[in-house]
Design goal:
With about 280 residues, the chain is mainly alpha-helical. It is built from twelve helices and four strands. A two-stranded antiparallel sheet has the order 1-2. A hairpin with a 2-residue loop joins strand 1 and strand 2 (about 140).
Length: about 280
């Protein structure tokens, strides 16, 4: 019971922090800059426990956080594209440094270093692409799209849990995540698509549908979040199984580590960016 209370309290504060931060661009940038750093730091600490792996935890983390803020500055129109130069220099340094460190397995160091940037830093940085958009000569901030991604992920988890508990019989991926079922995943998907259509009608009614998406496109957005969010969850489960751990950390009482909390979003965010850019082509 005590663990349930701790988990509930942590979950409430977690959701409140995410929802509140999206209401202000500075709060969003500060919170997710911190999240990016904590997640990369956690990831680097886990992979450094593997035999012959010694990535530079500090510089790797700083580089990822810098990429997030560089994307925030560029997408908000505050900084020019040259803001990315220090990040590129840091990546070159992390590659070249292995020539002089005489590590036992530099290939693994390179691989895990680049994985931290592609798997964690880049997806979080793409939140800025969802939050800032060009409106003629002006750039405006909108909380609707990034917040919707997280709400859809949370609703998918809720729907999948309820439907899986009541109807679940067929395992979705028993080798990696025995608790997930096809029935739960389908139920979560249907719930999210229904909520996505509801978001369309609400935002249209109150004149805040600044994305310009139709009801069908909102449903497609919900489905995209469900599919790629589920894959993101499974990828992190495979990562933990490979390392032989149950949780990625204990920074969030009752909820594990940062990777445990944001695993679904690490694939869902880039997928939503691709989805929206694809829609703009037609």
């Amino acid at each position: 019971m005590n663990n349930f209370i701790v988990r509930t309290i942590t979950g409430v504060f977690f959701v409140a922090a995410i929802v509140t931060c999206f209401l202000n661009p500075r709060a969003m940038a500060l919170l997710f800059g911190l999240v990016t750093g904590m997640t990369i730091w956690e990831f680097a600490g886990l992979v450094n426990q593997r035999p012959a792996v010694t990535i530079n935890r500090l510089i790797t983390t700083i580089a990822g956080v810098y990429l997030f803020f560089a994307m925030a500055g560029y997408n908000s129109g505050i900084t020019p594209s040259s803001v990315f130069i220090p990040y590129l220099v840091s990546i070159i340094y992390l590659m070249v440094a292995e020539l002089y460190l005489k590590a036992e397995d530099p290939i693994h160091n390179w691989a895990y270093t680049m994985m931290s940037q592609l798997y964690i830093a880049l997806p979080f940085s793409l939140l800025n692409v969802l939050a800032f958009r060009q409106n003629g000569a002006a750039i405006t901030y909108s909380y609707l799209m990034p917040l919707s991604v997280f709400v859809f992920l949370w609703m998918n988890d809720t729907g999948a849990y309820l439907c899986g508990s009541l109807l679940g019989k067929h395992k979705l991926f028993p080798r990696i995540s025995p608790g997930k079922t096809w029935e739960g995943s389908i139920g979560g998907g249907i719930l999210v698509m229904a909520i996505a259509v509801g978001v369309y009608y609400l935002t249209e009614q109150y004149g805040v549908n600044d994305s310009g998406l139709t009801a069908i496109q909102w449903a497609g957005l919900g489905l995209t979040v469900v599919v790629f969010g589920t894959w993101g969850d499974l990828i992190e489960s495979l990562f933990k199984r490979t390392l032989g751990i149950k949780d990625s950390g204990n920074v969030l009482p009752g909820h594990g580590g940062m990777l445990d909390r944001f695993d679904s979003s690490l694939l869902a965010i880039p997928a939503v960016v691709v989805y929206l850019y694809t829609l703009s082509l037609f």
